């Protein structure tokens, strides 16, 4: 380790205080503007099921008021953990651990106009996200026995735009990241015992099984982390030409215990046909150049683990400047990264971390191209190997920190300061909703309705799963929170099955019963237009697009 690093690290309090600084920065960023962005459909799923409520009581095929639509967001004193599990297991495709924790956590916060606290729901994910900072520090120290690498990894985790994106949503990904870090810690210990041909401690083996069980109980895609670990372990055994040395017996026991902890969920997962419709969006067929999309989607996710400027700003000039700065930064940063990885790959620890990343990426593309499930479409799914990427970045950048060659115009410390400040600006980009924007913007959509409709508004959509209910809940929640009752709103959730005309006929019959005048907003309405709408006047003025809400307007006088 360089003298520059030793100069400031003699005090025994230095490392704990520096880690505390990263934690404070990371937690502060994650809690900033926490409720500024409206919840989207996946978050509504967390809110409703964590309360112990259900989407099923929401009336379909009739006009309903916003308060009726929002009833699943109202906490009920009688709801229990059993209610959480009952509704979760029948209406969605997620394991329950995070929802149980959220159920207890959200009870600590007062309601907002009778609705569950969004700050309370999101703060749990934010806190788990902040805990990942000292957790990745611990993993860095365990892996490399280098406080420098551990601090760099913690500093990057604190400001990573990807980490903050996940931490500011009421979802389970930040808890899953903690299980990934813990599982990787056991994996690192196991690889050392394989290399030394010594038995794996039974306490480590038992802890590994428990951690893996909790990981699967948090998110089923955690098995991709386990699959990556298994592939690397198999490679290590193949390279040694030995799968029967002392550590392997307990590794087999860990594999068996982990398999049992995963198999218990299999009957529930297979019986839940309802959940199949929820994953249709990642099973879309591809044509032509669309076959290349997964590569670009994956690359975008990798880049934004470290930096992301306001490329989703509403102002074109800011978008162009941000894109140019990101390109220049990437061209400058890439040689630093590559050189650092080349140097660190001489260490076996770096080799296994690199192996985890490559194995996970390979699994993603196997699912995408051979199984027809495009995991690259959801950047959040990269949580399965995100900690390994942060660890590799920490190890690579430590090389630049320690390099003081005269042919560099800036020192290693200055280079890392630039990289970290870029990450900090990227974090601010995310918390200001100028990067990793929400898929749905009900706040903007409601604003458009207020500007356009001077008479009562009727919002109609086709309903297949609770995703569409969540889309409408977003609008209803904004209407209630803003507490501006004009114009009055009604919602129509026209259930859709195999015959799209069913939704059309339902809407047609409901419209006949509504008193005029009203404005009909067909929002994400994937069915033929109802005949009754032909008696209304279609809006001809060009109106702005809104994220998540594709709409047509009819003025029914």
TrEMBL record:
<dbReference type="GO" id="GO:0009103">
    <property type="term" value="P:lipopolysaccharide biosynthetic process"/>
</dbReference>
<feature type="transmembrane region" description="Helical">
    <location>
        <begin position="148"/>
        <end position="166"/>
    </location>
</feature>
<keyword id="KW-0808">Transferase</keyword>
<keyword id="KW-0812">Transmembrane</keyword>
<keyword id="KW-0328">Glycosyltransferase</keyword>
<keyword id="KW-0472">Membrane</keyword>
<dbReference type="GO" id="GO:0005886">
    <property type="term" value="C:plasma membrane"/>
</dbReference>
<feature type="transmembrane region" description="Helical">
    <location>
        <begin position="13"/>
        <end position="31"/>
    </location>
</feature>
<dbReference type="GO" id="GO:0016763">
    <property type="term" value="F:pentosyltransferase activity"/>
</dbReference>
<feature type="transmembrane region" description="Helical">
    <location>
        <begin position="206"/>
        <end position="238"/>
    </location>
</feature>
<feature type="transmembrane region" description="Helical">
    <location>
        <begin position="250"/>
        <end position="270"/>
    </location>
</feature>
<keyword id="KW-1133">Transmembrane helix</keyword>
<feature type="transmembrane region" description="Helical">
    <location>
        <begin position="415"/>
        <end position="436"/>
    </location>
</feature>
<feature type="transmembrane region" description="Helical">
    <location>
        <begin position="290"/>
        <end position="309"/>
    </location>
</feature>
<protein>
    <submittedName>
        <fullName>Glycosyltransferase</fullName>
    </submittedName>
</protein>
<keyword id="KW-1003">Cell membrane</keyword>
<feature type="transmembrane region" description="Helical">
    <location>
        <begin position="173"/>
        <end position="194"/>
    </location>
</feature>
<dbReference type="InterPro" id="IPR050297">
    <property type="entry name" value="LipidA_mod_glycosyltrf_83"/>
</dbReference>
<feature type="transmembrane region" description="Helical">
    <location>
        <begin position="383"/>
        <end position="403"/>
    </location>
</feature>
<feature type="transmembrane region" description="Helical">
    <location>
        <begin position="124"/>
        <end position="142"/>
    </location>
</feature>
<feature type="transmembrane region" description="Helical">
    <location>
        <begin position="352"/>
        <end position="371"/>
    </location>
</feature>
<feature type="transmembrane region" description="Helical">
    <location>
        <begin position="316"/>
        <end position="340"/>
    </location>
</feature>
């Amino acid at each position: 380790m360089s003298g520059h690093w030793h100069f400031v690290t003699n005090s025994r309090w230095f490392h704990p205080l520096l880690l505390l600084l990263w934690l404070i920065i990371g937690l502060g960023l994650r809690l900033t503007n926490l409720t500024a962005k409206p919840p989207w459909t996946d978050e509504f799923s967390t809110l409703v099921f964590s309360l112990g409520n259900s989407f099923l009581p929401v009336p379909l095929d009739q006009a309903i008021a916003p308060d009726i639509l929002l009833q699943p967001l109202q906490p009920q004193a009688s709801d229990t953990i059993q209610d959480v599990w009952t509704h979760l297991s029948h209406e969605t495709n997620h394991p329950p651990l995070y929802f149980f924790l959220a159920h207890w956590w959200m009870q600590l916060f007062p309601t907002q106009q009778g609705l569950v606290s969004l700050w309370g729901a999101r703060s749990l994910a934010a806190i788990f996200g902040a805990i990942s900072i000292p957790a990745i520090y611990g993993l860095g120290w365990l892996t490399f026995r280098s406080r420098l690498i551990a601090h760099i990894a913690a500093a990057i985790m604190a400001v990573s735009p990807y980490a903050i994106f996940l931490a500011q949503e009421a979802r389970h990904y930040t808890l899953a990241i903690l299980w990934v870090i813990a599982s990787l810690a056991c994996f690192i210990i196991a690889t050392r015992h394989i290399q030394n041909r010594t038995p794996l401690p039974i306490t480590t083996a038992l802890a590994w099984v428990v951690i893996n069980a909790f990981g699967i109980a948090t998110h089923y895609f955690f098995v991709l982390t386990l699959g990556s670990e298994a592939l690397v372990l198999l490679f290590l055994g193949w390279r040694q030409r030995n799968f029967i040395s002392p550590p392997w017996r307990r590794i087999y026991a860990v594999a068996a215990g982990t398999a049992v902890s995963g198999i218990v969920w299999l009957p529930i997962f297979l019986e839940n046909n309802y959940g199949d419709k929820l994953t249709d969006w990642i099973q879309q067929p591809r044509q032509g150049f669309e076959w290349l999309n997964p590569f670009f989607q994956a690359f975008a996710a990798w880049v934004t683990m470290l930096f992301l400027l306001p490329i989703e700003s509403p102002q074109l000039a800011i978008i162009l400047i941000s894109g140019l700065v990101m390109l220049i930064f990437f061209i400058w940063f890439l040689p630093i990264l590559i050189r650092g990885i080349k140097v660190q790959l001489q260490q076996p620890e770096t080799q296994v971390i690199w192996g985890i990343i490559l194995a996970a990426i390979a699994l993603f593309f196997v699912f995408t191209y051979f199984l027809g499930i495009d995991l690259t479409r959801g950047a959040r799914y990269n949580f399965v190997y995100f900690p390994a990427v942060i660890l590799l970045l920490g190890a690579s950048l430590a090389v630049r920190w320690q390099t003081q060659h005269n042919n560099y115009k800036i020192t290693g410390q200055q280079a890392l300061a630039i990289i970290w400040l870029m990450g900090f600006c990227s974090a601010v980009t995310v918390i200001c909703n100028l990067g990793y924007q929400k898929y749905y913007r009900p706040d903007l959509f409601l604003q458009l309705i207020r500007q356009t409709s001077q008479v009562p508004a009727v919002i109609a959509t086709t309903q297949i799963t609770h995703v569409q209910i969540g889309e409408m809940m977003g609008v209803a929640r904004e209407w209630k929170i803003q507490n501006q009752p004009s114009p009055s709103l009604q919602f129509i959730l026209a259930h859709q099955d195999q015959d799209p005309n069913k939704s059309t006929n339902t809407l047609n019959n409901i419209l006949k019963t509504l008193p005029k005048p009203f404005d009909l907003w067909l929002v994400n309405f994937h069915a033929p237009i109802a005949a009754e709408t032909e008696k209304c006047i279609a809006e001809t003025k060009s109106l702005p697009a809104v994220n998540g809400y594709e709409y047509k307007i009819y003025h029914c006088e």
